[in-house]
Design brief:
Helix content: 25-40%
CATH topology: TIM Barrel
Order of helices and strands: EHEHEH
Shape: elongated
CATH class: Alpha Beta
Number of strands: 3
Number of helices: 3
Largest sheet: 3 strands, parallel
Distance between the termini: 39 Å
Structural class: alpha/beta
Strand content: 5-15%
């Protein structure tokens, strides 16, 4: 069991971005990350909205936030609506 932080120590929120596989996302969960991120903008770590949604569905919703990064042009080019399991901030 992890001890509670000392009262004078700020809690740190940890997000691991650039997730490209379910195995990586589950590893983040097991290591205690608070959130995982997916990149929809052009990048070597870019994933489709469909793949991000499939991965997000397999993560424990009570412990993980799922975030996405997309440029305005990437959102316009997508023919797929973001999965409802993803953060509302990317469902624009």
């Amino acid at each position: 069991m992890t001890p509670a932080p000392a009262p004078d120590v700020a809690e740190i929120f940890v997000k691991i971005c650039g997730i490209t596989s379910e195995a990586d996302a589950l590893l983040c969960v097991s290591l205690g990350a608070d959130a995982v991120g997916f990149i929809f903008a052009p990048s070597v770590r870019q994933v489709s909205v469909q793949l991000a949604g499939d991965i997000a569905k397999r993560l424990p919703p009570e412990t993980m936030r799922r975030l996405g990064l997309a440029t305005p042009s990437a959102r316009r080019q997508s023919n797929t609506s973001p999965d409802p399991g993803l953060s509302p901030s990317i469902r624009r």
